[in-house]
Amino acid sequence: MLDRLFELTRRGTTAGREVRGGLTTFVAMAYIILLNPIILAGAKDVTGARLSIAQLTTSTALAAAISTLLMAFVGNAPFGLAAGLGLNAVVAYQAAPHMTWPQAMGLVVLEGLVIVLLAVTGLRTLIMNAIPLALKHAISVGIGLFIALIGLVDAGFVAAGAGTPVQLGATGHLVGWPVVMFCFGLLLMILLYARRTPAAILIGIAVTAALSVLVNSVAAVDPRSWGVVAPRVPESLVAAPDFGLVGQFDLFGGFARAGALTATVVLFTLVLSGFFDAMGTIIGVSDEAGLVDREGGVPRLGRILTVDGVAGMVGGSVSASANTVFVESAAGVGEGARTGLASVVTGALLGLTLLFTPLAAVVPAAAAAPALVLVGALMMMQSKNVPWDDVELAIPAFLTIALMPFTYSITNGVGAGVIVYTLIKAARGKVAEIPWLLWAVSLVFLAYFAIDWLERLFG
């Protein structure tokens, strides 16, 4: 029955290899159950409200389990899905400051719906042809720098200076136990990852969190210096999951609260980041699994892309941010995973974590932030794919990368890159090479950057 359902023999695998691969994928990506709540709970919405760590942990695990199981049975692919790093940064730091949390999550649901429509109608080809490949790589690099900066700031390693925009620590020097824990955790993760230790990020978070609990219990540490979560021993390891955020989304309220233009640009950023990140991950991991044919095709690609879009909707509907295919799925593929049976194992294990949500309240920013820095470093590797000797691509790519961390906005980076690329092409007499869709996107971003002027003119 398993062979018929998941095509084990056809793909040259066995049930044992699939179970082993699914377990490996779970261990490699389980850190997101702890990290996603830290990122989202660290931001405030337009009303100053914060989301609950416990509820976010439940929602993150629930959405990941549902999405991964959908991939198993619909896509028959060895992919784990969970809240996407970078996508949750857009929600927390781009959408939430302009609208309430339910309204921001409503945009996430819409993002998933748009990706589903793109997948089933074939419009993804038009979009992929419109955005230059170099800018797609630059977006990944810029998001990497952005989330790395978020990690450095959350840990207190970088802070606003008296005479400079940023400086080392709050006083120009590294002070306090939380910063020490961050430095320890970052070095530990780097060394574990460099040695190719399985679950390096998860081990780094767990060890640093445990050590932070010990330090907090024996040293006189100001609880406020730890940030949102002060590390303490939980009363119990197992607790009933808190589903308080499930269904808390408002589909179109963000357009009324933040304005149609701002909400549309945020939605576009979510779609752009989620769609292209997923495409790259799906093709890359499938190639590593030997599933890509000679023409570059991936089995059931349409279904896989559709599930990825549905996963975004699932994540938004439970306030976990957009779910997407995790590149850590490559770890399971390396252990032999080739089919959706591995995803059944991964999804089931993600579901079990719903019972262990108290552990999330132990992890301070000092323990989770190193993961952001390390993942940022890994995303920087995409910069090698940017042709830096081509001015038409190098300058837009640089602006895309630089403006994301420098303005604390992913949207600003994407917008600047698209506009400058279009204008450089036009200035060099290559108007015919610019797709009409890119002109339309450039106009949207021009309106976004001029929103204050437009409001004064037409308000």
Report on this model:
The chain has 459 residues and is mainly α. Helix content is 64%, strand content 2%. It is built from 20 helices and four strands. It has helices at residues 2-6, 15-29, 31-41, 53-75, 87-95, 101-121, 124-130, 133-154, 177-194, 200-218, 253-258, 260-288, 301-317, 329-334, 340-352, 365-380, 391-406, 410-427, 436-449, 451-458, and strands at residues 81-83, 158-159, 167-168, 323-325. A two-stranded antiparallel sheet has the order 1-4. It has a two-stranded antiparallel sheet with strand order 2-3. Strand 2 (158-159) and strand 3 form a beta hairpin. It is globular, with a radius of gyration of 22 Å. The N and C termini lie far apart (64 Å). The chain crosses the membrane at residues 21-41, 53-72, 79-96, 108-127, 139-162, 174-194, 201-221, 255-276, 348-381, 393-424, 436-454. Belongs to the nucleobase:cation symporter-2 (NCS2) (TC 2.A.40) family. Azg-like subfamily.
